[in-house]
Amino acid sequence: MRNIVLGVVAAGISAALGWVARTYLWKRKLRRKQAFFGLPDNSESLLVVNRGAAGPEFAVMRYDVFALLELAALIKDCNAHAQILPHDTARQGFGERTEFCVGGPASNRRMAAHLSSLLPGVRVNVDAEPSPDRGSFLIGSERYRVENGREEYALLARLTAERSPHTRPVFLFCGQTSITNQATTRYLARNHERLSRKHGNNSFVLLLKVINSQAYGPDVVELVEDVTRAAQTPLPAPAPRNSHRAS
Fold first, then answer.
1. Which helix (H) or strand (E) holds 82?
2. Helix (H) or strand (E) holding 151
3. Do residues 194 and 175 lie in contact, with contact meaning Cβ atoms separated by under 8 Å?
């Protein structure tokens, strides 16, 4: 009888220790995730999205809705809350709340402002007239053109203002097409643990390539390279044009 009692007690202690260990590991994993996203318990965040070109006053493109759903799941997992704002109503600074900004600068003013102030080494061609460079990215000295449905690029960035260690990050999902916005949010959802281990809570800018989206949708994404340094280094000013007056 004594051996049975001792066995039951030992099993109970082992189960309790196992539960404590699993709870500790789960909480540590959650805290790392919260730190990476800047989303402590019950914190507020912003989802800034571009408006659709047509439809009701606040219409969002289908793939951008999917991108918002990907992000909403991440925010919920961190025990945080989100507020959705159209890009042209988000007139506030950054750093007080974590911000997730979705959409290219042609349709998202907030994205255009972030690129201009935080990533001066990036230029996105937003010309309305058709041309080979329309929608292309210029990052440093390299240009990345879009081939709709075949090869499309997107920028994934985590940026912080160097004001205090408590400043919340801004996440940018800047794709050449709507489906690449969703592909970028999905890439973050699948790889945030690896990105957190590699970059910690530091800023980074990644160039991604979405392969054959017309067949595979937003699922096949390749990391082209880390372009943090080039994206944060201002581009040189264009050389002035010399004007010659005929004599």
1. strand 81-86
2. strand 151-159
3. no
User: CB pairs under 8 A, 24+ apart, for 161-165?
Assistant: 161/94, 161/95, 163/95
Tokens 């805290």 locate to: 31
Following DSSP, what letter does each residue of 121-144 receive, concatenated?
Answer: TEEE---SS--TTTT-EEETTEEE
Nearest to 64 by CA among 154, 160, 136: 154
CA-nearest of 135, 27, 115, 128 to 78 is 27
What is the pTM (predicted TM-score) of this model? 0.83
- Which single residue is written with the structure tokens 């449905």? 149
Residue count (the chain): 247
Pair 224, 131: CB distance under 8 Å: no
pLDDT digits (tens, 9 = 90+) for 51-90: 654 445 556 778 888 899 999 999 999 999 999 888 776 6
| 46: its two tokens | 């912003």
Amino acid at 112: A
Q: What is the DSSP letter of 20?
A: H
Quick one: how far is CA 190 from the chain centroid?
12
Q: What is the DSSP letter of 231?
A: H
User: How many CA atoms are closer than 13 Å to the CA of 189, on its beta-carbon side?
Assistant: 21
Amino acid at 18: G
Q: Give the up-direction half-sphere exposure of residue 115: CA atoms within 13 A in the CB hemisphere.
A: 25
pLDDT one-digit tens code per residue, 76-131: 999 999 998 887 766 677 778 999 999 989 888 999 999 999 999 999 998 878 88
